Amino acid sequence: MTEDDLDADLSEFADLFEPEERAPCQLYLISPLDVGGDFADRLKAALDGGSVAAFQLRLKGMDEHAIARAAEPLMRICSDREVAFIVNDSVGLAKRLGADGVHLGQADGDPRDARAVLGPAAQIGVTCHDSRHLAMEAGEAGADYVAFGAFFPTSTKETHHRPEPSILSWWSRLFEIPCVAIGGITPANARVLVEAGADFLAVCNAVWGHDGGPAAAIAAFEDVLAP
Ligand SMILES: Cc1ncc(COP(=O)(O)OP(=O)(O)O)c(N)n1
Ligand SMILES: Cc1nc(C(=O)O)sc1CCOP(=O)(O)O
Ligand SMILES: [Mg+2]
Question: How close is the Cα of 77 to the center of ligand 3, in Å?
Fold first, then answer.
């Protein structure tokens, strides 16, 4: 069965039900690759600049001890503000840090194994690219959110998938598990994703690379999220 056949079949099924009321779309901040220097102050400014639901520590090419050292002050900043602290890639590191959750790419392990290690309260997210099939598999495996992307061109990461915003509408009409939109999202292009049904917008460069600083970026997103 192709993804289009699956869509048609499940859409008929969805029409039988009233859509669930969903919480308003929220921001999910992704860290830059360098969290040294004044990054802790920039994180505080971002989180104090408006409402942010979650922060993901996304560091690459560092050993786990170095990531753990970098994580500790950032985790405190998040917990003081009741912002969920999510670790990218590594269940072991999420466990070691006592993080609120882990984000798993398709090569980062099975959500069932992550759940066994992190327990029932952990937030486990899964990258699903532009695939309805991967998202349903992630849901069945116990993911707490599914992430679709990259919706727009991005220089933060090399990407190979470009979903349409309609995948968010499809998902949110059929499933209660929240969906995250990621990839090149800015205040200028975010509205279509919010209107399509994204529960979270995951953003990196639009916040950390904003000319006016991270607080101004968060404020600009708030205008889109709560116009
Ligand atoms: C919220 C969110 N969605 C997708 C990703 C991408 O994860 P992954 O495919 O494992 O790629 P890397 O981020 O590890 O390069 C993400 N990190 N967060
Ligand atoms: C980390 C990541 N994952 C993506 C995916 O498509 O799965 S896109 C992406 C980069 C997100 O950063 P920015 O907001 O700067 O584009
Ligand atoms: Mg990964």
Answer: 23
